[in-house]
Amino acid sequence: HTLYFATGALAPLRPRSHTIITTIQSAMASRRSSLRRHSFLALALALVPQLCASQATPTVAVLAVKKPDKLFGNHAAYFATFSHFPLPKERLYLRTAEDEYGCTAFTADTANSWVGIVERGQCTFIEKARLAQEAGAKGIIIVSNDQSVQLMGAGNSTEALAEAKSIDIFVLGVDHALGQGLINATVDSTPEIEVAVYESNLLNISELILICLATSLVALGAFFSTADVSLPGISSSPSSGRDVSDSLRAALAPQDEEVLEVGPEQAIGFCFMGSIFLVVLFYFMSYLIYAIIGAFCIGGASCLAQFGAICLNYYIPSLRSKGWMVPAGVGWVAQAEVIAGLPAIAIVITWVVLRNTSYGWPLQDIIGAGFLCWLQRTLRLNNMKVASVLLSVMFFFDIFWVFISPLFFHESVMVRVATGGGTGESVPMLLRIPTLGDPFGGDRLLGFGDIALPGLLVSYLRRHDLVSGRGVCQGYFGPALIGYFVGLNCTIAALCIMHMGQPALLYLVPGTLGTTLVISLCRGELGLLWEGKAAPVRLQEDEESSGGPSSAE
Questions:
Q1: How far apart are CA 187 and CA 99, in angstroms?
Q2: From 69, 246, 443, 450, the catalytic residue
Q3: Is the pLDDT of residue 214 over 50?
Q4: How far apart are CA 429 and CA 371, in angstroms?
Q5: Is 175 a catalytic residue?
Q6: Were 351 and a residue from 241, 255, 363, 369 both cysteine, which residue would form a disulfide, CB within 3.0 to 4.6 Å?
Q7: Axis crossing angle, helix 264-315 with helix 384-399, rounded to the nearest 10
Q8: Pick from 436, 502, 456, 37: which is nearest to 204 by CA?
Q9: H-helix or E-strand containing 292?
Q10: Which of 168, 175, 246, 398 is catalytic?
Q11: Best-predicted range by mean pLDDT (66-80, 184-198, 377-391)
Q12: Residue 542 is among the residues annotated as catalytic for this protein
């Protein structure tokens, strides 16, 4: 059978695919009768060794530009399938050819360590590399015609493959913007570069930090959400030292007027309105990105100020009665709110200034943490039925807008919106952790919805456990939190393996909702969870079984 390999973008293709085709053709020519009888086995035997070899061949390079300063930094470049290894370790100098396409001889220079840089076109990649090699170059950089960098192969003919074996310099492809910047820099200076093979770890410490941060915020939000539920064994008598109503826990408890109970209709409405919002952002991101940033700043500052005011009122009770009347319908503003609002506003303003730098991520995460905890504190699920509807609907919502939307919009709507849609800005409703130890830098991101939505379920389960008098291990809160942690690990693993954006709820919903349903079924308590009814209090059961006081006595 004849196989045809696409010559599209580099990422989806295996390097040295032309050698795979040649190997299959050779096997077919020499063992045609055997292939007819055992075609699948022969094809597998032909493919396996070459696939193993191709996976070992580096495909991505780190092009470290040392000069000029405006291009300084690490950039991604891509090896041709016939590129030679190992790479030179010293600093290299860039030179252009007399012919911009590098299809005529370079001026020979064997005294210096230099690399030629040429544009794509007019002749084959092999010919460009051979001419640079004959002039004494250590390597050659071929600039793409656009921002996509395609796989550079030697061809499938026997002559091309034989000529490729004679190339003993490295051959790199770069995108048009970087390549033209380097070419322009050669006019009045001599750009200096270093080249290394890009080595990525399957897991990075940044992923672990992000997973732990998200799991901690889910647990912290559940604590705030259930601060109004009295813990078993807490006494409000004078001998306990402080009345429950005066505790910090009670101060953090949401007031009745602050709580919004989510029903099935609202759960479905979240999906419907979220879809409309995504489509609007997809088409009008350049106009709405700054409105989103503004809403993030106002909401984040308000949440941080509210938490700060709660703590100040608890530790300095005299601030509760002091304040000012603000006109324009604002009303009474307590002194604690003003004091707490100053650092909250300072954090937000500093983030606005530093948001596109490598120093903005801690402030964004602080604002996001306050926003997420306040969201879990004020939104409430009253039973498992609502939680199941909400998470099931959002489960398919996430999958559609990440994986299926490219069929209708030619790209993933969710990924484009999350990355700012080419505006140069990023949607701030994300947790950001910088990638540690990666030469290309970048951030590890997790959307607020992937924390808030499972967090609502976890908050409900903690409330149910507290009302039922159960501890972390005996109830549902602990297993659901562990399921969330495992689901996030699966999300990161899928991201590293598939090298594409993942719908986190695809893994988080089974880890949280699925775990809860299975455990409740095994305990025979699904009906109680489904209707939001407390389970039997085990502390009382243990007391009665141990011969404690009974109602008959």
A1: 15
A2: 450
A3: yes
A4: 10
A5: no
A6: 363
A7: 110
A8: 436
A9: helix 264-315
A10: 398
A11: 377-391
A12: no
